[in-house]
UniProtKB/TrEMBL annotation, chains A, B, C, D:
Name assigned to this protein: 4-hydroxy-tetrahydrodipicolinate reductase
Active-site residues, record numbering mapped to chain: H137, K141
Domain called Dihydrodipicolinate reductase N-terminal: residue spans: 6-110
Subunit structure: Homotetramer.
Record pathway: Amino-acid biosynthesis; L-lysine biosynthesis via DAP pathway; (S)-tetrahydrodipicolinate from L-aspartate: step 4/4
Domain Dihydrodipicolinate reductase C-terminal positions: 114-241
Signal peptide: none
Reactions catalysed: (S)-2,3,4,5-tetrahydrodipicolinate + NADP(+) + H2O = (2S,4S)-4-hydroxy-2,3,4,5-tetrahydrodipicolinate + NADPH + H(+); (S)-2,3,4,5-tetrahydrodipicolinate + NAD(+) + H2O = (2S,4S)-4-hydroxy-2,3,4,5-tetrahydrodipicolinate + NADH + H(+)
Taxonomic classification: Bacteria, Bacillati, Actinomycetota, Actinomycetes, Micrococcales
Positions that bind NADP(+): R39
Molecular functions per Gene Ontology: 4-hydroxy-tetrahydrodipicolinate reductase
């Protein structure tokens, strides 16, 4: 057994994200990969492998059981799987209150750049007269606007409301049909679908004489790995449940 | 009387565009301003001033009479006034056929960058799988999408149809309400309204693995003056009616 | 005398920034302009006008005396004039320690978007492998890189050093001559000079598979006024010296 | 044997570009792949496979012999291999004069978007006061500026010189050390190296009050395949040597 303090079992190692995570952990000098856990493996194998941390990148049906198992056995958990609704989160909070030394990170988004862009947009939104969002994705995407854009607009809208900012000015009188996008929380969101693109978002903020633009481009799934590693390195010192990677970022400005 | 071959009367000299044109002509080393013609001046004053060229920046009600007067007196005309519908254009063509040495430029847009951007977008549109347009303007604008964006999309759509290009791929199944924009000639147009902006347009073209973006930013009315001067310098060597400044640009690539 | 609690004397009211500030204060519903103070006016007139706040937009030679006068008479000061070197700041800190209820804001930059962009760039710099800055200005600018770009790069470089981030990777072996820009604190800065532009800056941050871009565009001096008003509204509740408008922004994320 | 008129042998099929081309030809409904030709295969096999066209994606040492063989056997050739210096081109022209029905395309760049961007930049350069280029690449790139940026700047500079455009205005007096980029043909080129990026270029053109930006993003080698297929579809109707894919594009505007 090595001296690495972060001994990681990747759950869902056969999936696309999981296999990237296996490689990322292997290449991290301060971590050891102790299990690449697939669909047919049992949770007990995590224990026998001596894991101190798990990364859960499985499916909504199994993620809750995986995380409960980790918490009950004193293993830290970093979770990228979706499906954590209010009920599940409440049960997890309850369990964590019985294991106060345990730590869990549930992160809907591991791309540091995207998490930062959303945080910055929410923070800046109150200081400008106008705010809109343009999200641009590959044309296979079935939902418009993107979930990230909706969440960004909701956070921006809430920040503007809390600071009593007037609605973005808009004199539009005539309009044609067929636009792709939406108005979310008072923020106009534009949805571009273009072959060649992956996942991109630009927040535009304007006041008289100036514009602030915050843009994030995701070119590749590799962009999630620095966030996974940051989660693994931090979860051991943050007891309880953290929801969103931004909770681990040093964003006090 | 100077030796300048281009002796210019600016009609509508009291307006915003007109007063910019007066300054631009004054500062052009190869031109002479011979009349800054206002609402109360008569057309005969253009003759007595010895004008060889007029710039018409008046109002739809007077532009046709002004241009007819110029053509009938052997004066070249550069026209930025709107209101030239099919009937007026037909009457002008008829008049020009009787004055074959005369030249008239009617230019809906004098911003060279905008004219070039539209021409390039129309030319490139057939070579990409996907095509969309984002136009961004100040929030006092009452129409959305902008006229320039609609015209750009129409030209792009026509070019794609002529080249038998399939519609831009789009798997969108769910959509929210309230987007600002339109689908024009099969091209999605997104309309951003943001305090601080003036008039901006970005054409996005995508195929597998690549994107071409053509963006024009108008910051100031000053951007129209190089186009006005180019029109004045060229109209004397282009008999007949030219519609659109692109007709004077050297765009054979 | 009105009931406005913020009664403002603008010093340097005849200058370009000063005259904008005069208008901005006049238009602010919660403020009253009590003096538009020019070169030939005496500081006593500020007292007789009943000012509670001054905005100093004068020249380096007079700003220190103006601010001292304000502090000594219980008047809050918002300062945009340059020339506050270490000696001056030390003398001001000393004076303020004798007037603990007084408040002074010295702000090298009143554009909220620019201040936010710099703060965000400094905060994000530690989370990415690569970081560069592109600044774009009108071609009359004599210094390259711009002062804002140098300061942004210094803050980013310091943040990366504090977090032990490796230098941005760069395999460049061959290079040509004549580039405009610099390497500042390990950050490459590129200086574009283009007719038509005003003042623009884009910070680019990249890691495997993703890019975060933070761009600020200044189109007009009007962009400074929201920052001046924010300073006036806040300085009364922030005793002592605040250096930089970011000190007044709610940037805890 | 199928009825496809375009029967393609891919030379260099084992390389990265070659294997992409093999797939692209297989998927093209109007083509048939008749040979995926590797290092150990003989040129005679191209004949026995009944190829009407070759795509040469080999190495500088073998490309000339491959193309000569094609021309001598009445096979059209689309060539992406580098190494075609003046001597080789002259010998090829001589050979083609003896085979007037043959057609060869030598294309240093198959990305349609990049070819269009360069053509548009060269065309527009004469109409603006200022012109600069920003190229952005992954940090493993050893040369700065990129070859494409140097060629773009040279074409823009030549167009400006031919049209007697004054140098881009630049008042820079002070400068720091260490910029990455160059001045090429009077055009400033800025070289950004950023982890996460692939190959990107933005041409900026400015005049009073306006800016035209032409940007190309290459995300993936897949972007070359539409250009390869366009070459194959066109070479049969263009006898002689065409240098550069732009020769096949319908760029008369």
């Amino acid at each position: 057994m090595s001296n690495a303090e972060i001994r990681v079992a990747v759950l869902g190692a056969g999936g696309r994200m999981g296999s990237e995570a296996v490689e990322a952990v292997k290449n991290a000098p301060d971590m050891e990969l102790v299990a690449a856990h697939g669909r047919s493996d049992t949770l007990e194998e995590i224990l026998s492998a001596g894991a101190t941390h798990i990364v859960d990148l499985t499916v909504p049906d199994s993620t809750e059981a995986n995380v409960r198992f980790a918490v009950e056995h004193g293993i830290y958990a970093v979770v990228g799987t979706t499906g954590w609704d209010a009920d599940r989160l409440e049960r997890l909070e309850q369990l964590l209150s019985e294991h106060p030394e345990s730590g869990v990170l549930i992160a809907p988004n591991f791309a540091l750049g995207s998490v930062l862009a959303t945080a910055f947009a929410a923070k800046a939104a109150q200081y400008f007269e106008s705010a809109e969002v343009i999200e641009l994705h590959h044309p296979q995407k079935v939902d418009a606007p993107s979930g990230t854009a909706v969440r960004t607009a909701e956070l921006m809208g809430a920040a503007r409301e809390a600071a009593d900012v007037a609605p973005s000015p808009d004199a539009t009188e005539t309009a044609l049909e067929g636009a792709r996008g939406a108005e979310v929380a008072g923020i106009h969101v534009h949805s571009v679908r273009l072959r060649g693109l992956v996942a991109h978002q630009e927040v535009l903020l304007g006041s008289a004489g100036e514009q602030l633009s915050i843009r994030h481009d995701s070119f590749d799934r590799a962009s999630f790995m620095p966030g996974v590693l940051l989660g693994l390195r931090t979860v051991g010192s943050r007891p309880g449940l953290t929801h969103g990677l931004d909770g681990y970022l040093d964003l006090g400005l």
